[in-house]
Amino acid sequence: MDTAQGFWPARADDDLVRRVRAFVAETIVPAAHEIDERDLYPTEIVRQLASLGCNTICLPARYGGAGAPYTAAAAVCEEVGYGSAAVAISLITIFQAQTIIRLFGSDSLKDRYLPRFADGMIASYALTEASHGSDIRSLDTKARREGESWILDGEKSFITSGSEAEFFVILAETDRGVSAFAVPRASAGLTAYIGHNSATFGLRNGPHVNIRLEGVRLPLDHLIGQDGKGVRQAVTTLDYSRTLAAAISIGIARAAFDAALAHTRGRVAFDRTVIEFQGIQWYFADMLARIDAARLLVTRAAEALDAPDHADVLRYASAAKLVAAEVATEVASKAVQVCGAYGTMVNAPFNRFFRDAKTYEIGGGSTEVLRNTLAKYIVKQAAS
User: Fold this and answer.
1) Residues 165, 69 within the same domain
2) SS percent in the chain: helix, strand, coil, step 5
3) Measured between alpha carbons, how far is 352 from 245 in angstroms, rounded to an integer?
4) What is the per-residue pLDDT for 129?
5) What does the angle CA 114 – CA 127 – CA 329 come to, to the nearest 5 degrees?
6) Is residue 353 a contact partner of residue 332, using CB atoms and an 8 Å limit?
7) Residue 208 and residue 175 share a domain
8) Residues 154, 190 contacting (CB under 8 angstroms)
């Protein structure tokens, strides 16, 4: 049985999903173990995804994109996440960088950088600082205007995709507040290094890096959007990327389900296959129901992004990321359980599924932050 077609029908353009699934099966799945084991950034695979049009799927045609809806981007992230969450998170940081520029950047900035994503440009979204973590309302990295330039000084920490990124979106504080800047890696005064706590046990797409900025000089149009509005712009961008992150979690859950099902159908114990035991079947029933429910929520979140009024984007993006990440961890754990000793083996894929799933309960918006976001939404709506 083809589980992809049987259990997981496409929720976007059928031809797109078929092409991405074929690439995932042929190219990403065979490389997934090595990427994870060696903590490698999958540069060549990311370039190949760009050639398929995946990296720019939502960009307008004038910038080399397909102009597709975000339901298509979610489908791409789900399928790539099925093969390797590390590859998929490499796409997330690319989507983040191009989204903030597309939404808020000047025309000159869009024309300069957005077409380069179709050629496979690798990007990173550098918000985090060692002293502030998820709190980006005030920053130690500073930017000041000097004539016709911006000058940036400071340091960013624990930056995903930073090991190979050619382009960064960096938040820095000006005298008007936190602002966003487009920063090429080749900028004089920018250096990247691997810090002490650079490696994670999941979502391993190369070691996280620290970005040191020492008198980095940028043209004035490399300010993204309005001076002092960087927090709002970054949060808006996160609403997009959280939906895509939720889709990746669905891909992880599907991969764990399919691998466990294949094993239990072939494994014989007490004169019958493991899948024939009712208790094991109940595990799969629960997993299927939970994946289906989370997958529908992710689709609803993507549809909210595509809606003209963007109504309730924050609600559905936060809920999708919260639920999908928890479902992925639950499914990955049950997949280990139903596979018994095989599920715990280092050479089996289940430990990678579990580590990636658990890491995504923290990365890209922790479950606690997402619950706070939804709680504030509820209180605000109830008072209106």
Assistant:
1) no
2) 55, 15, 30
3) 17
4) 78
5) 95
6) yes
7) yes
8) no
Report how many domains make up the chain.
Answer: 3
Cβ atoms of 283 and 261 within 8 Å: the answer is: no
Burial class (CB in 10 A: 0-12, 13-18, 19+), 337: middle
Residue at a domain's end among 180, 200, 228: 228
| DSSP for residue 210 | E
Q: What's the pTM? A: 0.95
Pair of tokens at residue 219: 């043209």
Final residue before a domain boundary, out of 181, 199, 228: 228
CA angle 204, 209, 212 (to 5 degrees): 165
CA dihedral (27, 28, 29, 33) in degrees, to 10, reads 120
* Residue tagged 């000006």 (tokens): 174
Please state, in angstroms and rounded to a whole number, the distance separating the CA atoms of residues 88 and 74: 11
- DSSP-based three-state secondary structure for 217: strand
Mean pLDDT over residues 243-269, rounded?
A: 96
Range of the domain at 177: 123-228
Least confident piece of the model among 122-136, 191-205, 251-265? 122-136
Question: Which amino acid, one-letter code, is at 298?
Answer: V
